[in-house]
Amino acid sequence: MPVQTILRYPHPLLKKICNEVDFVDEQLHTLVEDLLDTMRAGPGSVGVAAPQIGVTLRVCVVDVSASRHGKDNNHGLLTMINPEILESRGVATMREGCMSVPDYTGDVDRATEIRVRFSELDQTVREFTATGFEAVAIQHEMDHLDGILFLDRIISVKTGLFRRKNYK
Asked: Hey, what's the signal peptide range on this chain (predicted)?
């Protein structure tokens, strides 16, 4: 499947609350393949959500296994349909970036541990606890499904927003 163009802030679709997926069909399989190809093509990307490619459905993909921050603590490639966070614990400040906001990074407070439930493409329901960088990545992508960007969660615009030097 082809790599899709990432919508950039302030595109209005990035602020939309996404619709739940009611059934799995060929179009959903194509969407997931597009998300995976787009994530893999993005520099340093560990996830992408459907609204970032212009589709307002509650679907995202996350894979932190190749990242130095997540390689030792992850659940592999996650295809998440209608994900929900059941519990969260702890809080830590992390520097986040986003393909939809390529020129900036920012300090964001996130839960350090989350219990998440979602459906996979084969309609299997998965539930597990994610911690550390993987938990942060999942929260970031799930925020996209609710029309929230990391910019909306920055601790301080004065001291927590940084111009990205290189995005290659």
From this structure: none
Q: Are 64 and 74 in contact (CB under 8 A)?
A: yes
Predicted local distance difference test score (pLDDT) of residue 1 = 63
Catalytic positions are 141
29 in a known ligand binding site = no
pLDDT at residue 165 in the model: 77
Q: Is 144 annotated as a binding residue?
A: yes
- Asked whether the beta carbons of 145 and 49 are under 8 A apart, the reply is yes
Give me 82's structure tokens: 């209608």
Considering the domain 12-163, what is its CATH architecture?
Alpha-Beta Complex (3.90)
140 is in an annotated binding site: yes
Q: What's the pTM value of the predicted model, to 2 decimals?
A: 0.96
d(CA 73, CA 133): 8
